[in-house]
Structures are given as structure tokens and as C-alpha cells.
Design goal:
The protein contains nine helices and ten strands. With about 325 residues, the chain is α/β, with parallel strands linked by helices. The chain has a single domain, classed as 3-Layer(aba) Sandwich (Arginase, Chain A). The two termini are about 20 Å apart.
């Protein structure tokens, strides 16, 4: 049996040294032989307000040098059972959003053909649509756990059907989702109309506004999510702006009174037991957080996603 890749230890190379891959894992050019691949999509052409998410994958990778291979809270030891590597970035067309989408889908089709689970470093939330197209081609329509300040179900933005505020409207129209197994958590703020959240509810989505879970543990709710989704292939899409900007201000469209970091962890850890077939962490915009804290949080959440994948050992 081949040796499993391990993150480069901070005792073997200073954390500020070496190649800035995700968790300082090997960088590979093919998903062949991998159980899980970290993949960057440096795209922010779909952003409506503050750009900069194109730099998210690079900064998340840099901050991930602080991570170690064992989850001391949950006992998860992902690198003991899974072959994991960094597959680099999708070569998107930085001048064309519409041309970038099939590039992304084709890339993920190839990854999924190798039976490899992709964990994606965004990039703005537009990327969820081409990824879901690949997911549905492989697995059929999928369940969805979606953490966000926004529902991202706009009919269009400035007349454009493809943008970071439209992916889940398009996903419903293209039959990519099992709509009664879609959960949108952390929605909040102001809207364009009083019925902004009625459309996803009318599709069968379960909406959990942030204000309804203030000061509450989300562990009991995630037990309900697991019961509802069962063994249906499930995709986890996590917009960093689902978390309050007090913790994650480096994002394009921040919104106050959001989820806390412990609640974010409860959501991700609550996905253990689901048939997770892919996940993303999007909308980290490093120019708006020079401290690197938002990207560091993103890196930690991606590690937590790795820790809940099927087949991960618990020590």
C-alpha cells in the first residue's frame, strides 16, 4: 500500500519556508490515485462589490502552513486514511466569466472521474454553479448545505444570469439539486424586496436566518440535517461571509450580525456522517483583511471539511 501524503511538518521546515501549497501537501498534476484534492479557483469576475477573491486561494494556502495533521477536538486523522494532495488552480479565463464556467466544469469532471473528492478554495461564489454541474453529472442531483449571508438565488444581476448572486437559482433551473434537501444557513441583512427569501422556500429549501439562531448551538439542527439528507450525495458550500465580519472581515459583501466561529464549526463538524462528495470555501478577499485572519479561518474550515469526509479515521 503506498504511503499516504502528510503535511510538511513545522519541525522539518519553518512554517514561513517551503512551497505554499494547501497544508504544505505535495502539489500534483493529476487526481489519479487521490482520495481528496484541494483545488483553487482564483476567480472573482462574478463579484458585485469588492473584488479580491481571486487572491483567496493563494492567501488561504499561505495561512494553512499553521495547520497540523490531527484534529485535537474531534480526533479526526484524515491523512492516516486518505491520500490527499494539492491539485493547484483551475486555469480560468480572467477576461470572461462565461468562458470560465465550462473550463471549471471540465476540470472537475476529470477530478470526479478519478473518484476524488474536491475541496475548493475560492474565488467568488459563482464557482459553485460549474462545480455543481460536474457533481450532478457524476452523482445526479445533490443535497446541499449552504452557509452564507445571502441566498444567491437572484434571477439576474445587472441583467446577467451568471454572477456570484445567482448560482443556486441556476442550479435549481438545471436540476442540479435535490431541493427538499437544501439547507441555507446564516442568511440575514437587508433585501431588495420583502419576499427575497420566499423563492428558495417555494422550491423546498430550508432557510435558517442568522437571527433565529443567535446564542444557540447548531448541533441539534445539524442532527436534523443529517436525518433529512440521509445517504444522498451532498455538497457543502461555505461562503465566508456567512460568519460575522467581526471574525471574517476580508470578504466582498460582508454583513453584520452573522454566525460565530463556533457555530461555523458546529455546521461543518455536523456534516460528519453525510455522504459528502465535495465542498468549497469561497469569497475570501485578502485585500480587505491584511492581518490574514479571514484566510486563516478559511484554511481551518477547509481542514474541518476534510475531517468530516467519508473514510476519515477517528483516533
Amino acid at each position: 500500500m503506498p504511503m499516504k501524503n502528510q503535511p510538511l511538518s513545522g519541525n522539518a521546515m519553518p512554517r514561513f519556508g517551503g512551497i505554499a501549497s494547501m497544508m504544505r501537501l505535495p502539489v500534483v498534476s493529476s487526481a489519479q490515485g487521490l482520495d481528496v484534492a484541494f483545488i483553487g479557483i482564483p476567480l472573482d469576475t462574478g463579484t458585485s462589490h469588492r473584488p479580491g477573491a481571486r487572491f483567496g486561494p493563494r492567501q488561504i494556502r499561505a495561512e494553512s502552513s499553521l495547520l497540523r495533521p490531527y484534529n485535537m477536538a474531534t480526533g479526526a486523522a484524515p491523512f492516516d486514511a486518505l491520500q490527499v494532495a494539492d491539485l493547484g488552480d483551475v486555469p480560468i479565463n480572467t477576461y470572461s466569466l462565461t468562458k470560465s464556467l465550462p473550463i471549471i466544469t471540465d476540470f472537475y469532471d476529470e477530478v470526479l472521474a478519478s473518484d476524488c473528492i474536491p475541496l475548493t478554495l475560492g474565488g467568488d461564489h459563482t464557482i459553485a454553479l460549474p462545480i455543481l454541474r460536474a457533481m450532478a453529472a457524476k452523482h445526479g442531483p445533490v443535497a446541499l448545505v449552504h452557509v452564507d449571508a445571502h441566498a444567491d438565488v437572484n434571477e439576474d444581476m445587472f441583467g446577467e444570469s451568471i454572477a456570484h448572486g445567482t448560482p443556486f437559482r441556476r442550479a435549481v433551473e438545471e436540476n442540479l439539486l435535490v431541493c427538499d434537501k437544501v439547507f441555507q444557513i446564516g442568511l440575514r441583512g437587508t433585501g431588495y424586496a420583502s419576499d427575497d427569501f420566499d423563492w428558495p422556500r417555494s422550491q423546498g429549501f430550508t432557510i435558517v436566518p442568522a437571527h433565529e439562531v443567535w446564542y444557540q448551538s447548531l448541533a441539534p439542527f445539524m442532527a436534523q440535517v443529517r436525518e433529512r439528507i440521509g445517504n444522498t450525495p451532498c455538497y457543502l458550500s461555505f461562503d465566508i461571509d456567512g460568519i460575522d465580519p467581526a471574525y471574517a472581515g476580508g470578504t466582498g459583501t460582508p454583513g453584520n450580525w452573522g454566525l460565530t466561529v463556533p457555530q461555523a464549526l458546529e455546521i461543518v463538524r455536523g456534516c460528519r456522517g453525510l455522504n459528502i462528495v465535495g465542498a468549497d470555501l469561497v469569497e475570501v478577499s485578502p485585500p480587505y483583511d491584511p492581518s490574514g485572519n479571514t484566510a486563516l479561518l478559511g484554511a481551518n474550515l477547509l481542514f474541518e471539511m476534510l475531517c468530516v469526509l467519508p473514510g476519515v479515521l477517528i483516533r
